[in-house]
Design a protein that fits this description.
This protein has six helices and nine strands; from the N terminus they run αααααβββββαββββ. By secondary structure, the chain is of the alpha+beta class. About 6% of the residues have low confidence.
Length: 305
């Protein structure tokens, strides 16, 4: 229904401007003194050619009219020098037409121009209102929080009775695990949502390009995310970090980092396809490896539409 709102309002505005113009017509009519008469022009042209031919041969021209006295030589010469009427041209006579417009005509013309300008302004205003309305109502899906757990043994033993830090290794037979929470912060649902993510141990700074999102297959989960709700996704690194890997994460400066790549695609309530790309990393720059599970946004790889 909303996609028909702009055309309907534009049509209403155009009808309003047309009604204003029809109530105030502009009588741009040519002067009656110059009318285009093809038959009379042809006769006048033939008579003029005959008069000029007689004048060159030195003969007196006497044009007889029915029930009229013969013309003198002066009258014949004046008729010979007379130019035939030309076809009416708006381009040649526009100044004359403008000069014949009355004050009321100019007022009506000005009102017509103003009505057209108001119509254009109204269409532009309606377009901006619809665009802003869609921006306020559409779905916005972004990564709300991201935590990294089970990274490495703490650099110092944990005292008895103390809570285990997020980054400490809890499960010796598993690699680091990322807990990703998506949130729809818009006012309408996100439809056909697909969330792809990957966790890898890579060089730091990142030199080779990150992996591309895997294409959807039969195992891909497609769902809708209601406004204000959260979707949680957990991904685990398939390998357990070695002591060398942990040392490179803790080095100053670090030479490796745990990267988390992700892409979210969905369709908003206005049937427009949207996407969100994110990229985070974890090493000594982000926090104490084995204690902190905080992630830092990468310099590249974060974008959305």
């Amino acid at each position: 229904m909303s996609r028909w709102l702009l055309p309907l309002l534009a049509l209403l505005a155009f009808a309003t401007s047309v009604s204003v113009v029809t109530r105030n017509p502009v009588p741009l009519r040519p002067s009656t003194e110059k009318q285009y008469r093809p038959a009379q022009e042809k006769a006048a042209q033939s008579q003029s050619n005959a008069d000029q031919s007689n004048k060159k041969s030195g003969q007196a021209i006497a044009v007889q009219q029915p029930n009229a006295a013969p013309q003198t030589g002066a009258e014949a010469n004046a008729r010979a020098n007379k130019q035939p009427d030309q076809p009416y041209s708006w381009v040649e006579n526009i100044d004359g037409v403008a000069a014949k417009l009355s004050t009321g005509d100019w007022v009506a013309l000005t009102a017509s121009v103003v009505a057209l300008l108001q119509f254009a302004a109204l269409v532009g205003t309606i377009f901006v209102m619809v665009l802003n309305g869609r921006r306020q109502l559409r779905a916005y899906v972004f990564l709300d929080t991201a935590d990294l757990i089970n990274v490495a043994p703490p650099p110092e033993p944990i005292a008895e009775g103390q809570p285990i830090p997020n980054g400490a290794r809890r499960w010796p037979n598993m690699g680091p695990v990322a807990i990703l929470r998506l949130r729809n912060s818009g006012q309408t649902p996100a439809y056909d949502l697909i969330h792809w993510a990957s966790i890898q141990l890579r060089e730091y700074p990142l030199i080779t390009p990150p992996p591309a999102p895997a294409p959807p297959d039969a195992n891909t989960t497609v769902f809708s995310l209601a406004p204000g709700t959260i979707s949680v996704k957990n991904i685990a690194m398939p390998i357990i970090l070695s002591d060398v890997d942990i040392a490179e994460l803790r080095a100053t400066p670090p030479t490796k980092a745990i990267y988390i790549f992700g892409r979210v695609t969905y369709r908003d309530a206005f049937r427009k396809k949207r996407f969100t790309n994110y990229r985070f990393r974890h090493n000594a720059i982000s926090g104490n490896v084995g204690v902190s599970g905080e992630l830092t946004g990468a310099d590249e790889g974060n974008s959305a539409n």
